[in-house]
Amino acid sequence: MGIFTFSQQIESFETILNDKISIRALEVDGGKVWYSGTDSKFGFVDLKNIKNQKQIRLSEKKLQFRTLAQDKDSLYAVNIESPAYFFKIDKKNLKYRLVFTDMSKAAFYDAFHFVNQKQAFAFSDTDDNRLKLIIYKNGEWSFFENKVKLNSGEAAFAASNTNIASTKKYLWVATGGKSSRILRLNFKTEEIEVFNTPFIQGESSQGMYSIDFYDDNFGVAVGGDYTKQDANINNIATTNDGGESWQIQASGQNAGYTTCVKIKPGSMGKEMISVGDQHISYSSDFGKTWKKISDEKGFFVCSWVNGNTVVFAGKDRISVMKLKF
């Protein structure tokens, strides 16, 4: 366990779920941490009473879920690999049903995200080199028509369900692999713009893995190369113009490969936490510098519960970290 070397300290670190499961997607709502994972598993843990937890299987097939999204009353999960099954789960009674199926051979859903209560997007690998988005709007599911062509070897990573982010004005999608770019959908015009980035790219294992935006302008991206986890060159970047241009940060001075980044609520983008297989790291200066605060290993995804509590999930566990400011 590491300790902050600046103004924060880890007050406590508690594992609240142990199970034979790999978890790469989390949602926090109603005082509960919701998760989806391997072996078709879906469930929650109550943060106030961790004995209050429940797990179900959404299918008799051994589906791998790496996505999770939510509106007010329900959670939604879609598995990787084909066929891709979209499940809707009631938060109150955990009753679930199949609401959409993608039968295409290349279906591989990397992220699923609600932009408001009536609209969501899911991002998949594609078999015809065009950007593939599923849109859920006013209760209907369909493929989002667009003319964006992906470069050869450009794809995305189902690493933490966070290569999609949105504000009221925009939706951003981060790609990786041989080409790592930002695709920005303007909700008003329904047009998608594509921006190049200086992020590490060129190999199928490289690129952006996770993005988060504070507002229409400021955002952060993290990633790297999962085959070279110590490599830390050109694997963190920030934008101040809504993703049009990106500035590399902390190159050669961070903890390496990172799969998830989350801006602290109420910090106006100044503070953020990130996690990779080998580390938990923190920035308190808009992503310019980073401190490794813990050597805990095997986490892939994180989410803020409130201004001093973060939940982490990954290989075989969910844990909660309380920070002392």
Model description:
There is one protein chain. The protein is mainly beta and 325 residues long. Helices cover 0% and strands 52% of the residues. The protein contains no helices and 28 strands. The protein has strands at residues 9-29, 32-37, 41-46, 53-57, 69-70, 74-78, 84-90, 96-102, 109-116, 119-124, 132-137, 140-143, 154-155, 164-166, 170-174, 176-177, 181-186, 191-196, 206-213, 219-225, 236-239, 247-248, 260-263, 272-276, 279-283, 291-294, 299-306, 309-324. A six-stranded antiparallel beta sheet has the order 4-3-2-1-28-27, with no helix packed on it. Strands 5-6-7-8 form a four-stranded antiparallel beta sheet, with no helix packed on it. Strands 9-10-11-12 form a four-stranded antiparallel beta sheet, with no helix packed on it. It is globular and about 45 Å long. The two termini are 17 Å apart. 46% of the residues are buried.
Radius of gyration: 18 Å
Q: How can the largest sheet be summarized? A: 6 strands, antiparallel
Strand order of the largest sheet: 4-3-2-1-28-27
Number of distinct helices: 0
The ordered H/E elements are EEEEEEEEEEEEEEEEEEEEEEEEEEEE
The portion of residues forming beta strands comes to over 45%
Q: Would you tell me the overall average pLDDT?
A: 96
Helix/sheet category: mainly beta
Question: How many strand units?
Answer: 28
Uncertain stretches: 1-6
Distance between the termini: 17 Å
Shape: globular
Range of helix content: under 10%
- Based on the structure, what is the oligomeric state of the protein chains? single chain
